[in-house]
Amino acid sequence: MTVTTNPLVADYLRRLETASRGLPKGQREELLADIREHIDQALGPESSDAAVRTVLDRLGAPEDIAPPPPPAARAGARETWALIVLAVGGIFAFVGWFAGVALLWTSDVWQRRDKIIGTLLLPGGPGGVMILMGLGLTTSSTSSGGCGHPVAVAIPVHSPGTSVAPITLPPSASIPGTVSAACHSTSSSANGIVLLVALGLLVVSVTTICYLAVRLRRLSAPGGPAHS
Amino acid sequence: MVAREASDAGAREDLLAQLRRGTLQYCVLALLRDGERYGFDLVRELGEVHGMVTGEGTIYPLLSRLRREDLVATSWQESETGPPRRYYRLTDRGARALQAFIGEWVPFRDAVDNLMQPRGAR
Question: Is A205 in contact with A89 (CB distance < 8 Å)?
Answer without folding.
Answer: no
